[in-house]
Amino acid sequence: MTHINRFNRIAHSELSDEGPSKSQRKRESHALQDLGEELVNLAKDALARVPMPENLERAVRDCRTITAHEGRRRQMQYVGKQMRTLDEQEIEAIQRALDVIKGVSKAETAKLHALERWRERLLAKDEALTELLSQHPDADGQQLRTLIRNARREQAAQKPPKAFRELFQVLKDLLGTGSAASETSDEADNDLPEFPTREDY
């Protein structure tokens, strides 16, 4: 369940004529604090793709530079304080952006795992190379054979995995994973919500 869903569910179920209860406000605060921690822990390029007001962005970026435990804890509390100043539309915009980023990350991870499985198969049995070349006839078979042979020797002699890594890069270029991941990222950028302005309300 996303943080915004938690936020909305709590508000819907516990809101009374007298306003939010103390326990409801506490849970909402924790949900927003968790969302703020997600922002702080994002990779730099991913963080740049999340729409947020300037004061929150500054608080998040400052927190990322603090290494001292107590200092980071205090700054994280300040991030949570800034999160609690956001309205529902602003929170939803941030959550949607995070959902898109997580989806891209999962897709890229799946592609890398597929490459790793191909490399393992190529090193385990010769038939795998025949299968790969049948699927990709333009591949440099001699280069692949050399890398596979050298990678096997490295493993047997427990040497640094130079050919092992080169084989992965050749597979990445051959199978187009790099470009596919880039296209996925571009599509995700198009899905990112625009940050709502006050005039939109």
TrEMBL record:
Organism: Pandoraea commovens
Compartment(s) where it occurs, according to its Swiss-Prot or TrEMBL record: Cytoplasm
GO CC, alphabetical: cytosol
Primary location group: cytoplasm
Known function: Member of a network of 50S ribosomal subunit biogenesis factors which assembles along the 30S-50S interface, preventing incorrect 23S rRNA structures from forming. Promotes peptidyl transferase center (PTC) maturation.
CDD domains linked: YjgA-like
Source species, domain of life: Bacteria
GO terms for biological process, alphabetical: assembly of large subunit precursor of preribosome
Region annotated Disordered, chain positions: 1-30, 178-201
Keywords: Cytoplasm, Ribosome biogenesis, RNA-binding, rRNA-binding
Family, similarity comment: Belongs to the DarP family.
InterPro entries per record: DarP, DarP_sf
Protein name (record): Dual-action ribosomal maturation protein DarP
GO function terms (MF aspect): ribosome binding; rRNA binding
